[in-house]
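[step 3/7] inverse_fold.run input=structure_tokens len=453
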């Protein structure tokens, strides 16, 4: 094999490794991400000799239709393949978005109205992968710029942009400036509520995204938002475990996920607050954890449970080994907010800025396209907690956030002041913390059932 062939194969290998990392960043679990790579590779083989940049939406539709006709291929596999191509074109390689003219899209939708679709399970707001990026590239770019200028999280950006894609697809890729904004948004929200039967929180999230689009990107604010009736979210009490159940849960966990679960319970951390912890956030001397840029972009201090201090120090020693190896290999530094990166140009390479729970492999930064070591995938922790609850036989809906609920409830059970608990949880309003008194059935004083008098 020639040196040129070797370099080409190595380049291809790195390409698919980077794509798999990108897939996992889109909240696809690592045990499924390799299937996404296989679907993308199958699409590459489907039209040999035709480069990705030369492929159109028709090529994608033809591939998915052909895939659905193959013996032994289920509908869920076709959906998974479509999701893989969506990530490939809309996230990983936006510059290779399929090339279609606006006229082609309109003709395609006219045909769909006359001829029944071969894939009847497709929702009206499900966009063909890459089409919105190609037809509305300036709009999507402006949307991302406005979101980032406000320092919204990458998750908010992904969510808002996806709602805009769905909204555009729902209206047959029509130029948004030609639509009656109020009428178009109302039609879409009614579709979500009636046909899709989405949850109230989902409908409200879609409305928030579209309000942001019209107000900050298109500069066409709705005016009176009272014309849109926000779905009322149901008032539900949080799921809480007993102390015994928490211990049984921990008994069925091990390794890094056990340590993270311990910090979430012992310090009342949200999942992403735990995942994004930096070395400098831990103060072993004062047994404190500094939670930076939490929900609502607020900082707070909570306790570092002494029970996990020794294990955490041992974990950091192992992380330091990985960090030293990355520095030797010249791996780019950890992600920092752009303003911080400018203020501390070498900060990304310093130990104190590193993630406490780094990922095992390198991945592509979705915003800068730099290959670096990010934090651990939160799906791994969620899956570990859920599986441990199943093995422990806990008959409750246990998630990572259940640990935070249990933290607050157990502190109140121990008669700690509700204002103190509020500060530890980072709640802006004490009324949010008061919900845990309802879990205890103690809205003020301890209440005993008359059956127990």
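[step 3/7] decode complete -> sequence:
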């Amino acid at each position: 094999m020639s040196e040129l062939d070797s370099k080409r194969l190595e380049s291809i290998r790195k390409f698919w490794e980077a794509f798999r990392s990108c897939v996992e960043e889109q909240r696809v679990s690592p045990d499924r991400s390799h299937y996404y790579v296989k679907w993308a590779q199958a699409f590459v083989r489907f039209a040999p000799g035709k480069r990705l940049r030369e492929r159109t939406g028709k090529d994608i539709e033809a591939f998915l239709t052909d895939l659905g006709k193959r013996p032994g291929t289920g509908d869920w596999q076709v959906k998974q393949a479509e999701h893989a191509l969506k990530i490939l074109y809309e996230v990983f390689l936006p510059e290779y978005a399929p090339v279609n003219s606006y006229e082609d899209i309109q003709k395609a939708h006219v045909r769909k109205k006359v001829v029944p679709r071969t894939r009847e399970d497709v929702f009206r707001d499900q966009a063909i992968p890459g089409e919105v990026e190609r037809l509305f590239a300036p709009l999507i770019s402006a949307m991302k710029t406005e979101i980032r200028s406000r320092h919204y999280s990458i998750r908010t950006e992904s969510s808002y942009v996806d709602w805009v894609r769905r909204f555009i697809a729902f209206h047959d890729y029509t130029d948004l400036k030609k639509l009656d904004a109020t009428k178009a948004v109302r039609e879409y929200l009614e579709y979500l509520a009636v046909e899709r039967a989405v949850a109230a929180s989902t409908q409200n999230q879609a409305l928030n995204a579209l309000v942001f689009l019209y107000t900050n990107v298109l500069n066409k604010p709705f005016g009176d938002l009272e014309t849109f009736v926000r779905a009322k979210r149901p008032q539900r009490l949080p799921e809480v475990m007993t102390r015994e159940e928490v211990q049984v849960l921990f008994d069925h966990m091990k390794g890094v996920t056990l340590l993270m679960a311990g910090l979430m319970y012992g310090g009342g951390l949200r999942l992403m607050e735990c995942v994004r912890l930096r070395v400098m956030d831990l103060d072993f001397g004062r047994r404190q954890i500094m939670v930076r840029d939490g929900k609502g972009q607020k900082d707070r201090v909570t306790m570092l449970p002494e029970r996990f201090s020794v294990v955490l120090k041992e974990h950091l020693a192992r992380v330091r080994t990985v960090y030293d190896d990355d520095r030797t290999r010249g791996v780019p530094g950890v992600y920092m907010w752009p303003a911080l990166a400018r203020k501390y140009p070498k900060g990304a390479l310093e130990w104190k800025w590193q993630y406490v729970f780094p990922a095992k492999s390198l991945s592509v930064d979705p915003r800068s396209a730099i290959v670096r070591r990010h934090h651990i995938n939160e799906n791994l922790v969620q899956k570990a907690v859920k599986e441990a609850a199943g093995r422990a036989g806990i008959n409750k809906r246990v998630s990572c956030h259940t640990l935070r609920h249990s933290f607050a409830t157990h502190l109140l059970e121990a008669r700690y002041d509700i204002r103190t608990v509020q500060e530890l949880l980072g709640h802006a309003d004490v009324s949010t913390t008061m919900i845990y008194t309802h879990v205890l059935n103690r809205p003020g004083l301890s209440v005993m059932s008359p059956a127990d008098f």
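[step 4/7] annotate
Residues 95-120 have pLDDT under 50 and may be disordered.
The CA atoms of residues 21 and 300 lie 32 Å apart.
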